[in-house]
Amino acid sequence: MEKGINQEKPISSVIRERIREAGAPFAANDNIAQYIREGEMPQLEAELEEKIQGVLETLLIDTENDHNTRETAHRVAKMYLGEVFSGRYTERPRITEFPNVKQLNQIYTVGPIAIRSACSHHLVPIMGQCWIGVIPSDHVIGISKFSRLANWIFSRPQIQEEATVQLADELERLIKPYGLAVIVKAKHECMSWRGVKEHDCAMTTSVMRGYFLKNTATRLEFLSLIKDL
Ligand SMILES: Nc1nc2c(ncn2[C@@H]2O[C@H](COP(=O)(O)OP(=O)(O)OP(=O)(O)O)[C@@H](O)[C@H]2O)c(=O)[nH]1
User: Fold this and answer.
1) Chloroplast among the record's keywords (predicted)?
2) Which of 21, 61, 66, 154 pairs with 219 at a CA distance of 20 to 30 A?
3) Which residue's CA lies nearest to atom 19 of ligand 1?
4) Whether the CB of 191 sits within 6 Å of ligand 1
5) CB of 61 sitting under 6 A from ligand 1
């Protein structure tokens, strides 16, 4: 079978119809892995490569004679689907759970976790750090899984507010903690590389759940724990 856009119906249309039939959302920061069947990602990559090639042509870049851009469409398609936006197309990472045998009932923190994303508006990078605070209930997860989950959520076109809430929702579903805090501080290249060109401006978003939300002392303890980390 011919790949990508050359077949009768582009593979993106086939997948889109499947998602619509299921009544599922497919916004930039939604995960759509369950609607993609085996063997379809290479077809999607081939379709995307042709479209990126079209973008380069419209930008009047001579990809035939410019040795630097000859393979650019291929590289960009591979990068979007397999790297920077892979959190849309891959299943949630496997999470190992352990019982909280000793009944730790105090705060533990994880961070800073590196945040790499792109804004949904201009598709340019968002780079930053994330700190997580947990007051566990009866089980905990492997600490590397906080990074894996954050990477999965942020490797999508995002806005920082929604990404922070998505990460908190996912963690809450998984570990059902008595308290959960997620803080993200990031710089947006749509504000530095272009636009207002503010180089030092960062955005901080915070989601507090359970004890962290209800109890000011608990919240302040978490903030003081991460302050000098
Ligand atoms: N709330 C929020 N805004 C964001 C985020 N990332 C980028 N933005 C902003 O989204 C806005 C998009 O605004 P528009 O006015 O539609 O786009 P624009 O004309 O290119 O705007 P300028 O950036 O002001 O030049 C900009 O103000 C961005 O700075 C984010 O994570 N959260």
Assistant:
1) no
2) 154
3) 195
4) yes
5) no
* CB of 180 shorter than 6 A to ligand 1: no
- Report CA(12)–ligand 1 centroid distance (Å): 27
Domain span at 27: 4-89
Question: 205 CB under 6 A from ligand 1?
Answer: no
ipTM of the prediction: 0.88
One domain, residues 139 and 52: no
Q: Sheet holding 203-210: strands in order across? A: 157-158, 108-119, 125-135, 179-188, 203-210
CATH of the domain at 72: 1.10.286
Same domain, 188 and 79: no
Computed from CA positions of residues 91, 125, 146, 165, in that sequence, does the dihedral angle turn out positive or negative? negative
